[in-house]
Amino acid sequence: MSLNKLFVIMLMLSCFFPAFSEEKSKQITLAITDCVVNAAELNIKPETLPLFLLAKLSQEDWLTILEREELNKIMKEHTLNASQMSDPSKAIELGKIIGADYVLSMKIYTLGDKLIINGKTVRCKDGKVSGISRSYSSSIREDEIMKDASEKIAKSIIETLQAQLKK
Length: 167
Hints:
The chain is of the alpha/beta class. The chain is built from 6 helices and 6 strands.
């Protein structure tokens, strides 16, 4: 089969199956920063929730997640830290440095007898922010909270980013 015939066949297939050919080429790159934990009484490490999320989000083949240790190294080199990522301009700065489409930052804190987890996704090209917040009773075990929060936050991120793929 000649190269020209093969090209024509591939072109025809892409016309008949445009969704397939488009979806394969679309990728989103996400940087997940360490979590800011503002509660001394909690035994939650800053990397716990991001690692749970990594396990959930890495199952999506259209989503590239930047490596956490490399991300932390770059942030240190540019004197950026996780607490600054709640500022969209800093998230955009980081995204441009590392080539991410989105930066996810999270914060865990207590409010009365509640444990609050806030997640914020910043689109690096324009600073558009999407957020999610979860509240848990302090009587629930921290490992159960991390598991539930990672599932809910991952679901929200997937829905938000998939909507962007369709645009």
